[in-house]
Amino acid sequence: MEPDARRWQSWAAMVEDFDLVTEMHGSGAWQLTGDPVPTEVGCSAFVTMTEVTAPADLDGTRVPSTYFWIAAGDGGPDDELVGFLHLRHSLNPWLLEQGGHIGYSVKPSARRRGHAVAALRLGLQAAAGLGIDRVLVTCDADNEASRRTIEAGGGVLEDERSGKLRYWITS
Fold first, then answer.
1. Which of 81, 86, 110, 112 is the most buried (most CB within 10 A)?
2. Do 170 and 154 touch, CB atoms closer than 8 A?
3. CATH topology classification for 5-132
């Protein structure tokens, strides 16, 4: 689902579950001035950041991208937010080596319930809709759960670079 500031309370609970980290784990940096603040204003700032996708609006390190929130259920208004998914429309040199097209993270209290597999599947559909035929997805070499998620999504291991496993998935 697309980020929506009206769901700020569920977003705030999700951010707190992540222990207010400085980045969204596998789905990238917050790209905010400071760490996320789990308030309505903080959520609005995050949603505004996710809307910045035009190359002219980016700082030179980011590429055009689409952010999604992962919800438990079908994305209805009462569904709990459980994670983030970030689909990058192209790869710069760093993303080609480390970050990939798709990054995702599921909050600790919602892991091992299939949310990441479902989110990756939806991310691959969105990538195909953008005309991205081969999608790069990476994970830390020691992240067994993410490795299994990527492989369940059809990922084929290309190699390991700087502690990251690099998988390609045909979308």
1. 81
2. yes
3. Aminopeptidase (3.40.630)
